[in-house]
Amino acid sequence: MSVTRSRGRPPYADSLTPAEWRVADAIRHGGTDRTISKRLGISSDAVKFHVGNILGKLGFADRRALRQWAGVPQASALGRQRQRGDDMASATEVLERNDVQWGTIGQLSRSVHDIAAAEAWYRDVLRLPHLYTFGNLAFFDCGGTRLMLSAGEKAEADGYVIYFRVPDIHAAHRELQARGAVFQAAPHMIHRHADGTEEWMAFCGDNEGRPLGIMCQVPPA
Fold it and tell me: For residues 50 and 44, what is the distance between their CA atoms, to the nearest angstrom?
């Protein structure tokens, strides 16, 4: 007896495919079709195709709704953590845990014109420990606080962003929204390191509209 096989890719258990998740995270990070195309190495038409599929699957009218969507990939380290029930603590309890004190600065960023020249200067002149370089971003360790140098992207008005480390980014996002903070987009994964550790971030403005970030690192399960 012959078996009829369906054509196309197998269905995913998650709400989005891996490629769609990458585009969705890039949109939540503020990327345009052009910047997402360059970052992911795909055409602008492919980006638009994925965006159309994402909006259709999630029932959103436009990208603004997508930016505020707090979805998490099931296959991510954070998604697996949630499936194990590790996020059952209340938002306030999470913010007040002693293992990651609220207010700890996890990262500072500075805009530069030439990333290669800046990397060399901070490494060879300041002698800061160089962590890694990823495209137009270079990272250094400043006594436990990470310094990010970025080139080629839109510079912030003050030339820098303060990132606060939190243990649970979604709980912190909910709590800060309840206190009146206005976020540009929902928490999203911006990078997965070679060892599987994930970087999650979300951005809001202070009372004068200056950018602030919250960040957390999620180790692999």
Answer: 10
Contact 23, 46 (CB under 8 A): no
3-class SS of residue 58: helix
- Token code pair at residue 169: 């980014």
DSSP H/E element including 219: none
Longest dimension (CA), the chain: 73
pTM: 0.72
Domains by residue range for the chain, with CATH: 18-67 (1.10.10.10), 77-218 (3.10.180.10)
- Give me 132's structure tokens: 């890694």
Collapsing DSSP to helix, strand or coil, 70 comes out as coil
Q: How far is CA 134 from CA 119, 130, 174, in A?
A: 11, 12, 30
Token pair of 79 as six digits: 């998604």
The H or E element containing residue 14 is none
| Helical axes 33-40 vs 18-28, angle rounded to 10° | 130
How does pLDDT run across 78-129, given as a tens digit for each residue? 988 888 775 544 445 544 544 445 668 999 998 888 899 999 998 988 888 9
